[in-house]
């Protein structure tokens, strides 16, 4: 799979996930074979804050490449400035979020709202392409809603984006109005890929396990699959997908390996966020990691109550 000059051996990417795909988790997924990762959506204006405030938001690391920085906004000028900032910070790709379905975001005409405004979406893209000296990609929904006019807007944006020079599009096969409900429409992904046969199209939606991710690739013919909820608490999904695609039995981490990974994750979080924030940060991850444990509900309850490094260590001692 290719994104501009970047070639990826495994046709899979770690999706943008607000609250999760921060630097520590990206490093964890890379260990297990994620060839390409995305930050969570960052508000364009926040990237333009002075040094110290911006540094709270933007984290890079030599071991975290190739990496996409995802930005969200609706003013072409501000988005262009934010894109230039991402390039200065060393991100390999600038990804534009035209997909977020959160009510507050839509109310401010950002994220998925842009699926209703193809001309503005393309104006933003052109401004960003002019400001960024590296590949620019788009995260789209299959439409804003199911009105025919909105479906036409998807094609206008996708066509216009490739014409303007976008390196790839990632399509979440639900409408913005659907948010995360209902099934992702994989048939739509097939249509998009056959329409843009020589372009890079990444499919997103309902690839919650390695076999499902492989099935999405097979059924739709897209170049790559974006792993989102399936990668939460199971960073092994990248290795499992590689196994599955190669016809090998799928790797299953035992409890000792899960513990080692949880420790490594904690240590990355500690380094970046310090001893006060790291345990709270890890709480939401622990809840997801618990799913792989033979006694998920008992472990989950304990992760929910974590407040300190001591609490974290105690859960690992007791259950792993
Ligand atoms: C908790 C959560 C946070 C998300 N944050 C973002 C985000 O910041 N940017 C983005 O483009 N998509 C975001 N998404 C959407 C995912 O990247 C993905 O497109 C969607 O979850 C569908 O894939 P899945 O069915 O494999 O989870 C988020 C999804 C979830 C569940």
Please name the CATH topology of the largest domain. TIM Barrel
CA distance, first residue to last residue: 37 Å
CATH architecture of the largest domain: Alpha-Beta Barrel
Q: Structural class of the helices, strands and pairings?
A: alpha/beta
Shape: globular
Give a brief rundown of this model:
The protein has 320 residues and is α/β, with parallel strands linked by helices. The protein has helices at 23-31, 44-47, 51-55, 76-89, 103-107, 118-131, 148-164, 186-195, 210-220, 237-246, 255-289, 296-304, 309-319; strands at residues 2-3, 6-7, 12-14, 37-43, 67-72, 93-98, 136-143, 168-175, 200-204, 224-227.
Could you characterize what this model shows?
Helix content is 48%, strand content 16%. The strands form two sheets. It has an eight-stranded parallel β-sheet. The model has no long low-confidence stretch (mean pLDDT 97). The chain has helices at 23-31, 44-47, 51-55, 76-89, 103-107, 118-131, 148-164, 186-195, 210-220, 237-246, 255-289, 296-304, 309-319; strands spanning 2-3, 6-7, 12-14, 37-43, 67-72, 93-98, 136-143, 168-175, 200-204, 224-227. It has two domains: 2-246, Aldolase class I (TIM Barrel, Alpha-Beta Barrel), CATH 3.20.20.70; 255-319, Orthogonal Bundle (Non-ribosomal Peptide Synthetase Peptidyl Carrier Protein, Chain A), CATH 1.10.1200. The chain is α/β, with parallel strands linked by helices. It contains 13 helices and ten strands. The chain is globular and about 55 Å long. It binds flavin mononucleotide (FMN). The site of flavin mononucleotide (FMN) has 23 residues, from strand 4.
């Amino acid at each position: 799979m290719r994104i501009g000059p970047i070639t990826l051996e495994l046709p899979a990417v770690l999706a943008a996930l607000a609250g999760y795909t921060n630097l520590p988790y990206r490093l964890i997924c890379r260990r297990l074979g994620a060839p390409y990762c995305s930050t969570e959506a960052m508000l364009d204006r926040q990237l333009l804050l002075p040094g110290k405030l911006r540094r709270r938001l933007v984290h890079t690391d030599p071991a975290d490449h190739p990496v996409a920085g995802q930005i969200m906004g609706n003013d072409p000028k501000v988005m262009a400035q934010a894109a230039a900032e991402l390039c200065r910070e060393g991100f390999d790709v600038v990804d534009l979020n035209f997909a977020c379905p959160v009510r507050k975001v839509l109310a401010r005409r950002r994220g998925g709202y842009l699926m209703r405004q193809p001309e503005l979406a393309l104006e933003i893209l052109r401004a960003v392409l002019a400001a960024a000296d590296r590949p620019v990609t788009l995260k789209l929904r299959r439409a804003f809603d199911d009105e025919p006019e909105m479906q036409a807007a998807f094609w206008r944006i996708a066509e216009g984006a490739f014409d303007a020079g976008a390196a790839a599009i990632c399509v979440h096969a639900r409408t913005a109005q659907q948010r995360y409900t209902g099934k992702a429409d994989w048939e739509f992904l097939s249509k998009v890929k056959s329409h843009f046969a020589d372009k890079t199209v990444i499919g997103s939606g309902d690839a919650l396990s390695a076999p499902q991710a492989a099935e999405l690739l097979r059924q739709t013919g897209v170049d790559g699959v974006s792993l989102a909820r399936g990668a939460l608490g199971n960073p092994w999904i990248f290795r499992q997908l590689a196994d599955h695609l190669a016809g090998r039995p799928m790797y299953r981490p035992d409890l000792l390996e899960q513990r080692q990974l949880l420790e490594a994750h904690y240590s990355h979080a500690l380094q970046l966020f310090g001893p006060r924030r790291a345990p709270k940060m890890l709480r939401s991850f622990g809840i997801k990691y618990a799913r792989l444990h033979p006694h998920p509900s008992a472990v989950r309850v304990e992760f929910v109550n974590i407040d300190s490094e001591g609490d974290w260590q105690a859960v690992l001692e007791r259950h792993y």
